[in-house]
Design goal:
The complex is a heterodimer. By secondary structure, chain A is mainly α. Chain A has 14 helices and no strands. The chains are: A mainly alpha, B alpha+beta.
């Protein structure tokens, strides 16, 4: 186990380093100079431009720039943002992490509870009208582009019926002395539409996976045996069959985990959700290299860690996977 | 009891019920305690440099206009030469010693937000700094006629000019607003615009800097000691919303109170149908135009192989049906312009009319210059080289994206091949700044004064805003005459614009209408074409409850 884990960790570190180098090089090869962008915004003497170029290390060869970046990044220092100079990148990322985690956790929760339950329900009622309709709906949800879905939900629930806010994470006009309950309710109301938009797309996949896995398991002998022993149908489904149909969902969960960190760029833009996705999109537009590196590495770390966690969960739940 | 959709009758069902109740209950609770005396304004980007003259970006200028004050301000008609109609602000009055000297008396009640009085030292410091080319070449050019700025006591400032001209007052008060010398005079001139002051500015205006939540909002708080009167609004929240649809949605769902932009008809329709909103339209200083590069790409010392010929530029202008093009995209929310001047510019009324579209004349003009379709492919050529040009524009600009293809088609009909180059914002800006384009589809919000034309259309502007290297000594001479004209300035300006038009440095297409969307609960609202929110401190808010979501 420890050798396996060590090997996975070494693999993850190598992959992480490769991603760091690749992102660093590609970003600088892309056209668009971040300091040109800055001078678009403000009058700046050539001497000051040169000073900033030195400050951000942009006057150095690519290799030197990378070494400097890596040395600082190891200490958790990603430098100052070019666009928000002199704000530190870590402060920017930290301020966006909370909203991203909130949105991501909500989507994950909806996926786990709703997707699993509906998938199991479909498998139990295979071929029924309910199964057919849920299949149609899930496929429609899976096929719908998330930004389009977002606009549709906004136009109905926020603009036509005025039930929910169209964008932002909080109401800007909530008084500064509002109580925690009002604040929580406000965030909750703002969370619904972006979370539903993201969930509809991901829920469909979870349902499909769970349905297929359950159908496989429901055919197996131990399920017949459990029924023959006179156990209640609920006990057969949830205690016996579902536990054995969990592995595809674990894999899927591993794929969804990075959403916790990154959110979704399009959905964050549609709902002006102040998460890491919109920070990254803004950094791409302004060529804010330090912010882009920090967010890219965060995503890479999230993907790699969730991969390892998923594998660990598989090994823990299924002893057969521990061999080799 | 049968299971309900397969759920256990207790735990899971309760969980679902709780989730539903939370979802339904949340908005009902959230709408209850909204703040009545705060105003939220939607901005398209973050005001990271909210200091006057430090940035020309719209979001920064908008924020700066709430935090800072100029000595005096133009009237709403933006008449740059009408000295008597300027509104006194930090300067309570001004007088002329002679044709070369203006004397400003500062209002002794004016204070910076940290409590320090605004004095003549601040005015001298600010104007002197921005005349320094190490701070800004652009401002040094705009303030080139200021000879000296001196203090005569704590509240009197004397500004001397190199020559008599009608816009002396405008130049002294419009471009540079007083900044706090006690906080900035220790900053090296070259570092002024990147100083820490920028991230937490101390102004003299009706609102103080409150806080910045990066990527979300900027909060400004009313300055109760504002010497011109306590603002009628307690807080201003500048919401940072990048996506155009989300900007409109925040107005339509009742979250935001005010929004200003160049809108097109399909954006305006839902806004005017909402009874809690009202739309104010006014002429803008914005202009969209196709800018011809006069120098070769890659070697700026050589003329552009095709566009250095004024006849080709004129032919392209004749090939574009501007009224139809503009009507199809903007409907009634833009007008065709005949020069680099927005609808709100007073000079627009006197500018000579440009000829309308005439494809036959355009083809004739090209043929006279040797451009003929020798191979029958529909594209004219000369010496085996087809008349093919690249039109660069940023993909984020809806008006430019919408009009680029029709322009391409119109020019194809006169035998000119246009390759559309839709670019990411920073790439477009970088290529534009470096002159790496054939035709650049530009859109700019111009100064209210025509003398600002010196930046982009005169030889003196090369190396700065004049990225196309437009340089015609005849226009420069006419511009100098017009700026200095004290007798019949309109005639001189008409002549100067005529000279500019004759060389066809660009095809001037449109000036959009400025659309300001306001919630009806806002009262005593006045807006300006140059600074829409500058008078917000005079507004009041209906204390009645806000519209429920």
């Amino acid at each position: 186990m420890s050798r396996w884990l060590l090997r996975r960790l070494v693999d993850a570190v190598v992959t992480f380093l490769l991603v760091a180098v690749l992102v660093f090089v590609l970003m600088r090869l892309a056209p668009g100079d971040p300091l040109d962008r800055l001078t678009e915004d403000r009058p700046m003497a050539p001497a000051e431009q040169a000073r900033l170029r030195t400050l951000f290390g942009l006057d150095q060869p690519l290799g030197t720039q990378f070494v400097r970046f890596a040395e600082a990044a190891v200490r958790g220092d990603f430098g100052a943002s070019i666009e928000y100079y002199p704000t530190r990148v870590t402060d920017l990322v930290t301020s966006r992490l909370g909203p991203s985690l909130l949105l991501g956790f909500t989507v994950l929760l909806v996926n786990l509870i709703g997707g699993v339950w509906l998938g199991v329900l479909q498998a139990r009622r295979r071929g029924s009208r309910l199964d057919r309709w849920l299949t149609r709906l899930s496929l429609a949800g899976y096929a719908a582009p998330s930004f389009w879905l977002g606009w549709m939900l906004v136009s109905l629930f926020a603009i036509k019926w005025r039930l929910l806010p169209a964008a932002q994470m909080t109401d800007p006009l909530l008084p500064p002395d509002a109580g925690w309950l009002s604040r929580a309710a406000d965030v909750g109301a703002h969370l619904i539409l972006p979370a539903v938009t993201l969930s509809i797309v991901s829920l469909a996949a979870t349902m499909r996976y769970q349905r297929s896995a359950m159908l496989e398991v429901l055919r197996l002998d131990f399920v017949f045996a459990a029924r023959a022993r006179g156990l209640s149908e609920r006990r057969v489904i949830w205690r016996h069959a579902w536990r054995n149909a969990l592995f595809p969902i674990l894999t899927l969960l591993g794929l969804w985990l990075p959403i916790l960190v990154t959110g979704a760029v399009f959905v964050e833009q549609v709902f002006n959700w102040p998460g890491l996705g919109s920070l990254t999109a803004g950094a791409v537009m302004t060529r804010d290299y330090p912010v882009l590196m920090a967010t890219a590495l965060l995503v890479a770390a999230a993907v790699l860690i969730s991969g390892i966690l998923t594998d660990l969960a598989h090994r823990w739940l299924d002893p057969r996977t521990r061999d080799g | 009891m049968t299971s309900w959709l397969g759920l256990a009758p207790t735990g899971a069902r309760r969980l679902l019920l709780a989730a539903l109740l939370t979802g339904v209950g949340a908005p009902a609770q959230a709408q209850a305690p909204r703040e009545a005396t705060a105003v939220s304004i939607v901005l398209g980007a973050e005001p990271t440099i909210p200091v006057p003259a430090f940035s020309s970006s719209k979001q920064n200028v908008d924020a700066a206009s709430l935090i800072f004050l100029p000595l005096a301000r133009l009237n709403r008609k933006l008449e740059t030469t009408a000295e008597r109609s300027f509104e006194p602000l930090l300067a309570r009055s001004w007088s002329r010693r002679d044709s070369l000297t203006l004397v400003f008396e500062l209002d002794p009640r004016a204070r910076w937000h940290d409590g320090v009085p605004v004095t003549s030292r601040d005015v001298v410091f600010s104007l002197t700094r921005f005349r320094d080319t190490t701070v800004s070449r652009t401002y040094a050019l705009l303030l080139r006629d200021l000879a000296a700025v001196t203090a005569d006591g704590p509240h009197r400032v004397v500004v001397s000019f190199r020559r008599p001209y009608p816009e002396q007052l405008f130049d002294a008060v419009h471009h540079v607003w007083p900044l706090p010398a006690h906080l900035l005079d220790s900053v090296p001139p070259a570092r002024l615009t990147t100083a820490a002051f920028v991230s937490r500015p101390i102004g003299s205006g009706p609102f103080r800097w409150g806080r910045l939540e990066p990527g979300r909002l900027v909060e400004l708080v009313a300055n109760p000691e504002f010497f011109l009167g306590k603002p009628g609004v307690d807080r201003v929240l500048l919401l940072v919303v990048r996506a155009a649809e989300a900007q409109l949605n925040l107005m339509l769902d009742g979250t935001a109170d005010a929004f200003e932009a160049f809108l097109v008809p399909n954006q305006i329709t839902p806004l005017v149908q909402d009874p809690s909103l009202r739309l104010v339209t006014q002429p803008s200083l914005g202009v969209g135009y196709l800018l011809f590069n006069q120098k070769a790409l890659g070697d700026r010392s050589k003329p552009h192989p095709i566009l250095s010929d004024p006849a080709v530029r004129r032919a392209i202008a004749l090939g574009i049906d501007r009224p139809n093009l503009i009507r199809s995209v903007f409907g009634p929310y833009a007008t065709v312009v005949d020069g680099p001047m927005g609808q709100a510019s007073w000079i627009r009324r006197i500018a000579p009319k440009q000829p309308g579209a005439n494809p036959a004349a355009a083809r004739r003009l090209l043929a006279e210059r040797g451009w003929r379709d020798t191979d029958g492919d529909g594209i004219v050529d000369k010496g085996g080289v087809p008349l093919s040009l690249r039109l660069a524009y940023p993909g984020s600009s809806l008006p430019r994206v919408s009009t680029a293809e029709p322009i391409q088609e119109m020019l194809r009909r006169i035998g000119v091949r246009i390759e559309l180059v839709r670019l990411d914002g920073p790439v477009w800006f970088e290529r534009r700044s470096r002159g790496e384009f054939d035709i650049d589809y530009s859109q700019a919000v111009l100064d209210p004064t025509p003398s600002g034309l010196v930046q982009s259309w005169s030889c003196a502007g090369i190396g700065g805003s004049n990225v196309a290297h437009v340089c015609d000594p005849a226009f420069d001479a006419a511009l100098t005459r017009a700026i200095g004209a004290t007798d019949d300035p309109a005639r001189h300006w008409r002549e100067a614009i005529g000279v500019l038009q004759s060389t066809q440095p660009a095809v001037f297409l449109y000036s959009p209408v400025q659309s300001i969307v306001l919630r009806t609960r806002l009262r005593r609202v006045t807006t300006r074409p140059d600074l829409p929110w500058a008078d917000l401190w005079r507004w009041t808010v209906d204390p009645a409850p806000r519209a429920a979501r």
